[in-house]
Amino acid sequence: MPQSKDGLSKQRNSPIHDWFMDEHGEFIDLHAQLHTYSEVIDFLKHVEDEYSIKEYSNGNNAGARWLFQIYSREFIQQVADIVENILREIDMDGPILEVMAGDGRLADFLRPLLEREYIATDVKSKRYNIAYPKWIHELDAEDAIAEFNPAIAIMSWEPYLSTKSIEIVDSGIPLMWIGNPERCGHFDLFDRKHAGLDCAFCVSRHDRIQEEEFVTGIFLFNIDLDSCSSIL
Ligand SMILES: C[S@@+](CC[C@H](N)C(=O)[O-])C[C@H]1O[C@@H](n2cnc3c(N)ncnc32)[C@H](O)[C@@H]1O
Question: Kind of pairing, strands 118-122 and 175-179?
């Protein structure tokens, strides 16, 4: 039975599956490929029992990957459906532009589900231990917007107190913002008109899975919510 910090035996609340570990006994990298939402939840409950989601998400997994929003098949499909529907409704040219794209996994998973060109950019800050792929354009968010003039921008897990999302929103570009409003970006962002979507499949490094405390969401800015309400 797993031990808690005080050495006492801990109650295990989660089922264990072989696929949770690789051949070296390390927790798998949840973003190596997509899993279903229920698999992700089972896996993270087990991580909570044995270890901690924060430590797991800080590169302590078989892929040495840093995770922020934690993706599932259903989450990715929901994001793709929302983006496609918005693009159909707003009738604007230009690519989908992801800024602050990190290791590019959101882009990797979304691209096959979207018809529009998808460009991923990041300033590639050394502050994070993220393995930035070469194919991610190295650009500050503002410069990326100026260069690619997107139909819609996507930003997931903006650093705390960054005001880049505010600059994008104030420039009038439609923005999908994903993250924890308490710990990502600047609190003034939410003074702007926005819509928080039903996010049944949102999971993140800040959540407490067994307590069912989920703190992230998908928020839309600069999108005419009246004309989009039927599709969101
Ligand atoms: C918390 S990480 C999130 C990465 C990725 N979106 C994810 O969810 O895995 C924040 C990312 O923002 C990038 N970043 C920070 N400031 C930026 C800026 N001004 N313009 C573009 N990228 C920036 C960092 O390099 C880092 O990759």
Answer: unpaired
CATH number for the domain that contains residue 219 = 3.40.50.150
Quote the ligand 1 centre to 184 CA distance (angstroms). Answer: 11
Cβ proximity of 74 and 201 under 8 Å: yes
Asked if the structure places residue 185 within a domain, the reply is yes
Q: How many domains does the chain have?
A: 1
* pLDDT, tens digit (0-9, with 9 covering 90-100), for 9-52: 456 667 789 899 999 999 999 999 999 999 999 999 999 999 99
pLDDT of residue 198 exceeding 70: yes
Nearest atom of ligand 1 to the alpha carbon of 143: 20
Examine residue 166 and state whether it is found in any structural domain, yes or no: yes
Q: 118 and 107 in contact (C-beta within 8 Å)?
A: yes
Which amino acid is present at 156? S
Q: Which residues pair with 9 in a beta bridge?
A: 3
* Residue 46 is assigned to a structural domain of this protein: no
Question: Domain of 171?
Answer: 73-228
Cβ of 122 closer than 6 Å to ligand 1, yes or no, is: yes
* pLDDT tens track for 70-111: 999 999 999 999 999 999 998 899 999 999 999 999 999 999
Identify whether 19 is part of a domain. Answer: no
